[in-house]
Amino acid sequence: MATRDIYATGFDEDVQTESGANQCPECHGHVTTNIKETVCEDCGLVIEEQRIDHGPEWRAYDADERERTGAPLTATRHDRGLSTEIGHRTDAHGNELSGQKRRRLARMRREQTRGRWRSKAERNLAHGLGEVRRLASTLELSESVRDQACQFFRSAQSEDLLRGRSIEAIAAASVYGTCRCNQRPLLLEDIVDAARVESSRVTNAYRTLNRELKLPTPPMRPTSFIPRLISELELDHDIQRRANELAACAEETALTNGCQPTGVAAACVYLAAQEQGALITQSTVASAAEVSVVTLRSRRDELQAI
């Protein structure tokens, strides 16, 4: 059994005594610091107050579990991800809910859905951002591209570009514009195939976004489409290396000026395949690049004339 008093050397978590070097600047008295302020015990001078806690913001219930105070803000939701989502059949611990609680949650979910949007603009924003997320998931785009496309859609709505245009068309144009800004080798036909709108509407919406928002879209290079064509046509690495050399030569001689980059890339792949002795037809390469055979032949003749 311990003979000493366990509270003799105890520590008060609320009040801490500073060392002798820290004295009151007025009377050189004794200074104490608690969780809120630093005070002189002799003259009562408040030396420091409203101390900032620079520690982590998560909360720990045990040694293995740490939970943050909330989800981070995201541009993919109309409310930045701050709204509450009500579950369906289980509680927070995974336990099955009773029928009475499920009916109560259904009523709460219905009322929460009705009050989720404060205006028609927020409802349109939620629908458009959902379409952007669907397209990004279908096309297997990265999260950074998805977030940037959602931001483009927000900018389009704030500039009143949705009036008279389809929400799906603006969403598809936002995804395509983001891919263009990030030099992603994605064709407009790929966006149209995944979108729920016609090609002409997506084209007009992209032109509007590019003109009104002044998107920083650099010109697409033929070399960015060559890996995609090589993968679709199942050609070897030597053909890809030679096609890149032909594309670089075409860019140096300004052959790509005014030409469709996919057509130049298709011609480079076809010429490289012919030099390596690969058995591939012009129609197969043109179909993979989504250009006409006439375009492929014209770019091939121009490359051969260099």
TrEMBL record:
HAMAP family: TF2B_arch (MF_00383). Residues 76-94 have a biased composition (Basic and acidic residues). GO terms for molecular function: DNA-binding transcription factor activity; TBP-class protein binding; translation initiation factor activity; zinc ion binding. Sequence repeats lie at residues 130-213, 224-305. Keywords: Initiation factor, Metal-binding, Protein biosynthesis, Repeat, Transcription, Transcription regulation, Zinc, Zinc-finger. GO terms for biological process: transcription preinitiation complex assembly. Residues 66-101 are annotated as: Disordered. The keyword Zinc-finger applies. PANTHER family: TRANSCRIPTION INITIATION FACTOR IIB (PTHR11618:SF13), TRANSCRIPTION INITIATION FACTOR IIB-RELATED (PTHR11618). The keyword tRNA-binding does not apply. SMART domains: CYCLIN. The lineage of its organism: Archaea, Methanobacteriati, Methanobacteriota, Stenosarchaea group, Halobacteria. It holds the Pfam family TFIIB. Zn(2+) binds at residues 24, 27, 40, 43. Stabilizes TBP binding to an archaeal box-A promoter. Also responsible for recruiting RNA polymerase II to the pre-initiation complex (DNA-TBP-TFIIB). GO terms for cellular component: transcription preinitiation complex. Belongs to the TFIIB family. InterPro entries: Cyclin-like_dom, Cyclin-like_sf, TFIIB, TFIIB_arc, TFIIB_cyclin, Znf_TFIIB. It comes from Haloarcula vallismortis ATCC 29715. This is Transcription initiation factor IIB. Residues 130-211, 224-305 form the Cyclin-like domain. Gene3D superfamilies: 1.10.472.170, Cyclin-like.
